[in-house]
Design a protein that fits this description.
heterodimer; A: alpha+beta; Dipeptide-binding Protein, domain 3; D-Maltodextrin-Binding Protein, domain 2; eleven-stranded mixed beta sheet; four-stranded antiparallel beta sheet; 17 helices; B: mainly alpha; MetI-like fold; 2 domains; flat
Chain lengths: 545, 312
């Protein structure tokens, strides 16, 4: 396909040829200047058209390069990894690395750091690995890490990021010698080591024209065209070994159907988020399929302050009435998710052993205990029909069908509900002002691997995203303890207890964990779906010889 | 003529000012917190309450409607479109980049549409009611009925997957523009074929034509000097409006073929409630419509001087 430099030249040349502004390249050399002048307009047009089509012959699959189609492209020519969410693409494409990392079981591990140790309630000492170099060959030192991370908290700086600055909550940052970085936080924060796995907190060196993003990863940033593609090349000097590709190109494609066709045409080698409905068929053609649960959770926030959902028994009844597996089968073709019993996918990281429950009879029993009465096949509460207003938004394709299927499952036990699909903020407002009862959302529940921050904002009484007004003093106490307890075993017990409360009180209703559904050309090795979607390729990702 | 042009220009200024104000009012009053939309677009994840307030302040949304409007309109009066609330990038260069993808594609689509529509309509009107006429009408109806989304995917399936002649998506080379331009061209051809056909048939039915023939004016001269100008008026109107719609309404084609452009620029800005980008895109779109309408009005006056005389 026409996706390389020579092809661009050929197409440019044929346009030039048509207008007699020749720049002969390749086959065009055959058409001499004199011959072109002798051609009629029609002949020249036909030649130009033939060459245009000829220039677009399909690419022969090459094992030394990888082209990945994904929904979003870069938003700048040189996207600073610290700004916005640019760090995700630079991390996923292997350009940048972080001090800490999260493995495929959601466990924390030192990445560019060799170790992290707590020196006091608010002090963390990070020791850097020896022998790490940046893409330009300069050595990694504690001072370069300080210089890279300090601007995140400095308003007006190109690397400023209000969200990450809030996560870091730094009171001080300094270098001790060549290899130790000392972080001082404003308050005790047990999640701090996890925070250092945030892709935006990238380890960066001094930039230059040749290395506008000077990092330590297996791939070197080369160019980005906003909303189109992001291109990286191998860092042959990478400390863990030579990367598997000379070049990797991340291509933006907002329409999954087009990306799927481009894959079949051989234009891209891999697709992140392949259409679920076609996943089985494409694997029959010899393509590799990858599907594994992530920490992106579809869940209902409930109006716990007013209306029927203020009653915990009704919340639990609604939760039990939802056939999560039915939703996964119908809305996600059975491969796009796994039913969720708790906040995290089963067996990963902080997940407690809480299975999803589908029990329509049990749901009706709970409604009865809550004082509801079934009349003529419909549940009545306080003399009025029990009606539930569900709101959601449409920016994620599975949200509206999930809401509609929930409506159907509620209808099946005699509970009437309405579904409104609007904009995210409007839905949040509706649940906040009490005009809706359930708000279906999709969130990454542990973007840095630690459970604290998201649970606090969602469910703590004063949480910024606690739109449903849920209050539970026991939960508040546990969440506070989780933030300030540094013993891993104690934290584990705390977040187990938190998940038990959420399930027992139906503080929110988890529906399913999204599976990332990807496909790749046959022969791809060293790739797996990461549960936080933080990593795509490593130095080990390559095609079989 | 100068008076007429001045009047049209004055109307254009009123339209642009009204558009700017109305867009700002609509964006401001749309349901949901604009700061939340901006924060989500900026960070692609949930943010805490104080970060949200910081985003609100940075976007100039914390001082009420008129403060926000003044904060946008005052720099604009000196040619500054401001910075995106999401990315912090200057809006004007990004808008120009988006237009640089859209304008050539729209012109190519229009060109393809014209190349298909003109001969089809002329062939159809040679013998009204003949099989050729019916075929042209059927093709025009089909072109109008097929959604761009479906047609685009079919073209990709044929030319990229099956024949492997053209790239499926992207905007890196001129070859990448062929399939999107064809997708647009078929839709445009449908509209133009019907208009040109009915324009020619209507012009041929004019009562003065038999008189001209009796005076010995040749068939060719009648077509060139009388039928064509008469038929051109509605065609120019539709042609201009198609161009305007193509320039601002390519979003579906841009999404299918993974191309940047004005349509996706505007849609992503609206979803993110990125006021400076939305305002800039809407103003540019309004300017395009106003300019094209102005051009159409002026061309009318050239083709048919009676229109100018009536206005005078």
């Amino acid at each position: 396909m026409c996706n390389n430099e020579s092809c661009v030249n050929r197409v440019t040349s044929l346009v030039a040829l048509y207008y007699n502004i020749r720049r002969p390249v390749g086959v065009l050399e055959y058409v001499s200047k004199r011959k072109v002048h002798q051609m009629s307009t029609l002949t020249r047009f036909v030649v130009a058209a033939a060459l245009a089509l000829g220039s677009a012959v399909p690419a022969v699959a090459e094992n030394d390069s990888l082209s990945i189609a994904t929904a979003f492209g870069p938003n700048a020519e040189v996207p600073d990894p610290r700004a916005g969410y640019n760090g995700w693409m630079s991390n996923q494409s292997g350009v940048t690395e972080t001090l800490m990392g999260i493995d495929y079981d959601l466990k924390l591990y030192p990445r560019v750091a060799e170790s992290i140790a707590q020196a006091g309630p608010t002090t963390w000492r990070v020791t850097l690995r020896e022998g790490v170099t940046f893409h330009d060959g300069s050595p990694l030192t504690a001072q370069t890490v300080v210089d890279a991370i300090a601007p995140i908290s400095e308003e007006g700086s190109a690397g400023h990021n209000a969200r990450i600055a809030k996560l870091l909550d730094l009171a001080g940052l300094s270098a001790q010698g060549e290899r130790v970085v000392v972080f001082e936080t404003n308050a005790p924060n047990a999640a701090f080591p996890w925070t250092l796995s945030e892709p935006g907190i990238a380890v960066l060196g001094a930039v230059s024209q040749a290395f506008p993003i000077n990092a330590t990863g297996p791939y070197i940033f080369r160019e980005a065209v906003p909303d189109q593609f992001y291109r990286v090349e191998a860092n042959a000097a990478y400390r863990l070994g030579e990367p598997g590709f000379d070049e990797v190109r991340i291509v933006a494609s907002g329409d999954p159907a087009t990306a799927a066709l481009a894959f079949e045409a051989g234009e891209v080698d891999m697709i992140i988020n392949y259409p679920e409905a076609d996943f089985e068929r494409i694997q029959e053609t010899g393509a590799l399929g990858f599907s594994a649960p992530t920490v992106r959770l579809y869940f209902f926030t409930l109006n716990a302050a007013s209306g029927p959902m203020a009653n915990p028994m009704i919340r639990r009844a609604v939760s039990m009435a939802i056939d999560r597996d039915g939703i996964v089968q119908a809305a996600l073709s059975g491969v796009g998710g796994v039913p969720a019993g708790t906040i995290y996918p089963a067996g990963k990281g902080w997940a407690s052993d809480i299975a999803p429950v589908y029990d329509p009879a049990g749901a009706e029993k709970l409604l009865e205990e809550a004082g509801a009465v079934k009349e003529g096949g419909r549940w009545m509460l306080d003399g009025e029909p029990l009606e539930i207003d569900i709101v959601t938004y449409s920016s994620r394709a599975a949200l509206p069908p999930t809401a509609e299927l929930t409506q159907a499952f509620l209808q099946a036990i005699g509970v009437t509900s309405t579904v409104s699909v609007g904009e995210y903020g409007a839905s949040a407002d509706a649940i906040k002002d009490g005009s809706a009862d359930m708000f279906l959302q999709a969130w990454v529940t542990t973007p840095q691997g630690d459970p604290g921050a998201v649970l606090e904002t969602l469910l703590k009484s004063d949480g910024g995203s606690n739109a449903g007004g849920y209050t539970n003093s026991a939960l508040d106490t546990l969440l506070e303890a989780g933030r300030t307890s540094f013993d891993p075993d104690r934290r584990r017990a705390i977040y187990d207890a938190v998940q038990e409360i959420i399930a027992a009180d139906a503080a929110l209703i988890p529906v399913f964990h999204v599976n990332q559904v990807n496909v790749a050309r046959a022969g791809l090795m060293g790739y797996a779906v990461h549960p936080t979607e933080t990593y795509w390729i490593t130095h080990e990702t390559r095609f079989e010889e | 003529m100068i008076g007429a042009v001045s009047g049209l220009l004055l109307r254009s200024v009123v339209v642009l000012t009204g558009t700017a104000l109305l867009t700002f009012v609509l964006l401001w009053n749309a349901p949901g917190d604009p700061a939340l939309s901006i924060a989500q677009a900026r960070y692609a994840t949930v943010v805490s309450g104080d970060v949200l307030e910081q985003v609100r302040a940075e976007a100039g949304l914390d001082g009420g409607f008129w403060t926000a409007f003044r904060g946008w309109i005052e720099p604009l009066l000196v040619g500054d479109f401001g910075q995106s609330s999401v990315t912090g990038r200057d809006v004007w260069p990004d808008l120009l980049t988006a237009a640089s993808y859209t304008v050539p594609l729209a012109l190519m689509g229009l060109g393809i549409g014209m190349v298909i529509a003109l001969p089809l309509a002329i062939l159809a009107t040679r013998r009204p009611g003949s099989w050729m006429d019916r075929l042209a009408v059927a093709l025009a109806s089909l072109g109008a009925a097929i959604p761009a989304y479906w047609l685009g995917l079919l073209l990709i399936l044929l030319f990229a997957v099956t024949l492997a002649w053209l790239p499926a998506m992207g905007a890196r080379t001129p070859a990448h523009a062929i399939l999107p331009a064809m997708t647009l061209g078929f839709g445009v051809a449908a509209a133009l074929t019907r208009i040109i056909r009915s324009g020619i048939l209507e012009a041929r039915g004019q009562s003065f034509l038999p008189a001209l023939r009796r005076r010995g004016v040749t068939h060719r001269a009648i077509g060139r000097d009388h039928v064509a100008p008469h038929a051109a008026i509605p065609v120019i109107t539709v042609f201009g409006l198609e161009l305007a719609f193509l320039l601002e309404g390519l979003v579906m084609v841009e999404v299918i073929f993974a191309r940047p452009g004005l349509g996706s620029f505007l849609v992503s800005a609206i979803l993110a409630r990125d006021f400076p980008k939305v305002q800039a895109a809407v103003l540019l779109t309004a300017l395009i419509f106003v300019t094209i309408n102005l051009a159409i009005d002026l061309i009318y006056r050239v083709i048919d001087p009676r229109i100018g005389a009536r206005d005078a």
